[in-house]
Task: inverse folding
């Protein structure tokens, strides 16, 4: 589910946007791997959408020990926080993960494999 303003405000109030910012490298990597997994399973030529990826990301968010510790310390026990945080990860990473960098151009004079 896409992140809306109300959800973003809840995440902000719970400190989870700041938490994401401090650990963004971990979450970008996790989102990239999840996108690649989903993309590999989709038929060629089909569009992968954020909701397709977030469904597969949620189990990885659930088992992240650092996030689990944070949620426990803040007494954020409801499953809602896992889902909202996964939506936040996809919201923040989608432009990067859905448009991976192009491979470098071939070197002039290099032989093709």
Result:
């Amino acid at each position: 589910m896409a992140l809306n303003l109300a959800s973003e405000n809840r995440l902000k109030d719970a400190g989870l946007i700041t938490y994401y910012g401090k650990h963004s490298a971990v979450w970008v990597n996790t989102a990239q791997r999840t996108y690649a997994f989903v993309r590999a399973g989709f038929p060629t030529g089909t569009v992968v959408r954020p909701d397709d990826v977030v469904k597969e990301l949620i189990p990885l968010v659930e088992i992240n020990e650092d996030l689990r510790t944070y949620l426990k310390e803040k007494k954020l026990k409801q499953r809602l926080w896992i889902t909202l945080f996964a939506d936040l990860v996809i919201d923040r990473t989608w432009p990067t993960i859905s448009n991976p960098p192009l491979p470098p151009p071939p070197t002039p004079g290099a032989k093709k494999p």
User: Anything to note?
Assistant: The chain has six helices and no strands.
